[in-house]
Amino acid sequence: DPETKRKIIGRVFIEVFDDESNKIDNVKWLAQGTIYPDVIESVSVDGGPSQTIKSHHNVGGLPDFMKLKIVEPLKLLFKDEVRRVGRSMNVPNDILARHPFPGPGLAIRILGAITREKVAILQEVDAIFINGLKEHGLYDRVWQAGAIFLPVQSVGVMGDERTYENAVALRAVESTDGMTADWVNLPYDFLGIISNEIINKVKGINRVVYDISSKPPATIEWE
What is the reported pLDDT for 60? Predict the structure, then answer.
C-alpha cells in the first residue's frame, strides 16, 4: 500500500535523522523545505473537509523525544512563489529551475515491493531520461520528470532470444504550483531515442511507456 510505504519511509527518516543529530553538539533546530502543497496533500487544512491524498514525511512534526524545534520558512508558499523568492535573493537559476524530487526518493516510483535491484535499475533509467531532456534542450520545458518501475513483466525479443522482463513508464508534466499539472507533449523522435537507449543499456528492461495523464485525476507521482 502506498500510504504504508510512505509512513515506513517517514519513520526511518526520523530514526536516521535522530542518530545523526545526536552526533552534533547543541542541535536545537531542524530546517525543512516544506511547501504548501505538501501540507495540503498530507492533512486536512485548518480543519477543512479535504482528505489526505499522500503522507509527506516532512509534515506532522517530530516525536517529542527528539527535543528539536522545526523551522519551515516556505511552508505557506507554492513552488512558483518559492522560486520568486529565490530569484529575489539571486539564487542561481540552475538551482531554482531544478525539477522537484519526491522526499521519499525513488521508493515511491517503484510500484509495490522495493529491492536493491529495482532501485539500481530505476536509477539508470531515470538518469538516461533526465540527461536526455537536458541534452535535447527540453529540461526547462518540463516542470517535473521521472521514471516509474512498473510491477509488470512483458514478453520481448532481443536478437533471436525471447525475453520476459520489466517495464518502465516515463512521466513529464508542466505545472505552475504542483496542485494541477498537464502531461508534456514531448517530441516522438525524442521519446524514441530515449526508449531505445533505456532498452539497449539497462539490463532487465524490455518495454518503455509514456504517461499521458493529467492532474487531476492522476497525481504527478504514481504513489
Answer: 58
Topology of the domain covering 1-98 = Rossmann fold (3.40.50)
Q: Is the pTM of this model over 0.85?
A: no
CA-nearest of 96, 102, 173, 90 to 138 is: 173
**What is the CATH topology of the domain spanning 103-222?**
GMP Synthetase; Chain A, domain 3 (3.30.300)
State the amino acid at position 2 in one-letter form. P
Q: At what angle do helices 116-135 and 188-201 cross, to 10 degrees?
A: 140
- Quick one: how far is CA 68 from the chain centroid? 27
